[in-house]
Write a structure and sequence with these properties.
The structure is a single chain. This protein has helices at residues 121-135, 139-158, 172-190, 196-206, 210-213, 224-228, 231-244, 251-263, 279-304; strands at 22-36, 42-50, 53-59, 75-85, 88-98, 309-313, 318-322. 35% of the residues lie in helices and 17% in strands. It is elongated and about 75 Å long. The chain contains 9 helices and 7 strands. It is α+β, with helices and mostly antiparallel strands and 361 residues long.
């Protein structure tokens, strides 16, 4: 049996592939370039990825993939052979096409291909609705929240909260908002002088502008309006739109909510046009800052793969200490200062890779 036939057709994650494997499944196209070989024949030079890793791929002139229409950032269904080229694994594509909705029945799931919250999205959404229902008292506040979810819920459910620093994955914004709400209502319990409706609505709206500032996964890059205007002003605009849709919405309440959105970064040098001037604005900023920083530390811990010790956290501009887990492998290597883990990007999985994809070409 030759090397190419050592294994039957595999559908496991990219990180588990070995030279000689025949593989098929679903992937994200990170890069797609049309080139020509020395004989002048077209071929495709690609990079395919899933949540476990990435691999260079080639579709030569005899591959059916050349006749298919797909582009960078598309999800695709593929089949091919894993080869070793210059001591690096490379996939020779036999076929590759853009996924269709029917592929979900065969195992296609974005969560297996891109960084995604480890939380269950349905459970997160139920927690969001439950917290809003339980902690908003004014009928007007409840209506504002309900109409905001109706208008933006589809995007809020899956959008990233950032490009790289914290919650930079599918469902990240929802996870961030739900986490902040859980903490914010406890703070309101401790400080009864706080206006709970303002704090809760402030959490809901504070990063809503990121729906316009950032492209959805898998692109997760700044949009033109995101670069030119930014999520704080965009979020204030979305708040004004929702308030304007409610007849005779109180101007004073809208102004207080605008201040929460505009000041939530805390300081002008961090992007806020104004700094927090109300108790509710101070709480919103502190809760946002705490949840973001702890998410950075979780991401560093995930990227360290069980290693312990000091790691450079670029976004925090300091070394941080990662405590040793009971399951830490003493031979694990600690990421070097300034390495990719310093971005604070959460890992896509726990190191074992996503579950096997069930798919038939």
């Amino acid at each position: 049996m030759g090397p190419a036939m050592r294994n039957s057709l595999r559908t496991g994650p990219i990180a588990t592939w070995q030279a000689g494997d025949a593989v098929q499944g679903f992937a994200l196209v990170r890069r797609r370039d049309l080139r020509q070989d020395k004989g002048g024949r077209d071929y495709l030079d690609l990079e395919l990825a899933d949540a476990s890793g990435a691999i260079a791929a080639k579709a030569w002139s005899d591959s059916a993939a050349l006749a298919q229409e797909f582009a960078a950032h598309d999800y695709v269904k593929f089949r091919g052979q894993v080869q070793s080229y210059k001591e690096q694994l490379q996939l020779r594509l036999e076929n590759c096409r853009r996924v269709v909705e029917a592929d979900r029945q065969e195992g296609f799931d974005e969560a297996l291909l891109i960084p995604t919250t480890k939380e269950d999205l349905d459970a997160l959404w139920q927690r969001l609705e439950g917290l809003l229902e339980a902690h908003l008292a004014r009928p007007l506040a409840r209506r504002l929240a309900a109409e905001t979810l109706a208008a933006h819920g589809v995007a809020l459910r899956v959008h990233p909260a950032a490009k790289a620093i914290h919650h930079a994955f599918r469902g990240g914004l929802l996870e961030h908002v739900v986490s902040m709400l859980g903490l914010a209502v406890r703070i309101c319990d401790h400080y009864p002088e706080l206006d709970r409706d303002l704090v809760v609505l402030g959490v809901l709206f504070h990063d809503l502008g990121k729906l316009l500032e950032l492209g959805a996964m898998p692109v997760n890059d700044y949009t033109p309006v995101g670069r030119l205007v930014g999520h704080i002003i965009l979020g204030r605009d979305l708040l004004r739109e929702r308030c304007a849709a409610i007849e005779e919405f109180p101007e004073e309440l809208r102004l207080q909510l605008e201040h929460l959105v505009l000041s939530h970064q805390g300081r002008k040098e961090f992007g806020s046009p104004v700094e927090p001037m109300t108790p509710e604005a101070i709480v919103l900023h502190m809760v946002d800052d705490l949840d973001s920083k702890l998410a950075v530390l979780r991401g560093l811990k995930d990227n360290a793969r069980g290693a312990a010790g000091f790691v450079w956290a670029r976004s925090l501009d300091r070394f941080v200490w990662l405590a040793e887990d009971a399951t830490t492998d003493p031979g694990s290597e600690l990421p070097a200062p300034g390495a990719g883990a310093g971005e604070g990007e959460p890992a896509a999985d726990d190191g074992a890779g996503p579950p096997e994809q069930k798919t038939i070409w």
